[in-house]
Amino acid sequence: MQSRIVSVPDEAELGEALAEAARGVEGWITGTGFVEDAEVRVGGDGKYPLRRARGRHAVASLGGPAGGPYGVVLARDGEPVVAGHLARARAFGVTLFVSATVFAEHAASEPTAADAPPRPSAELGARAASPAKHPWAAAASAVAAAESRDAPAPAPVPKGGDRVLHFAFGLCDVLSARGSRLHIRDLSGAGRIRELVLETLEIQPPYEKDGKRVFRLSRKS
User: Rounded to 5 degrees, what are φ and ψ at 115?
Assistant: First the structure.
């Protein structure tokens, strides 16, 4: 997994900055900072109208697959929270975190066989392949190998792009995952965005449906 951090210039159009950050990337983009004069497409019955968030708002949450759509939660002191899909906004102090599995420019720069460095001599290769001569080194290697074999594999947890089947909210898309907190959007209701704390939930092993991992979430007893 490769990643990078992108600082968006002040007063830049956030949608254009997200498109540039997503260029040649397959993965997930999250962000934080402030925006002004934002327009957010909110859920509703039938259509998805635009809601304007005038003035400067804090970006409480911003995330989505590279290329969009990007779910956003905007907050401003004394006003209701605005949540939905980002349509446009001017950025102020916005930082994007690009978590990618593929960077096109990185893949293009991979060395070819002609560019590969010369192979080490047979003597150096034999030296590298020879076992450690010291008994303590061999013992340490054996212990490390045994611990690696015996260590249980970490249980999978939901991440951005997955889905969860919540005991109260039903089937939801996972918009972003930060530490032990998830931001989800329900699929059966009005597209409301909620925050979950994983420590309070029982997480069942995932199953696959419609090409996505689905985790069943229940309340911890």
Answer: -90, -5
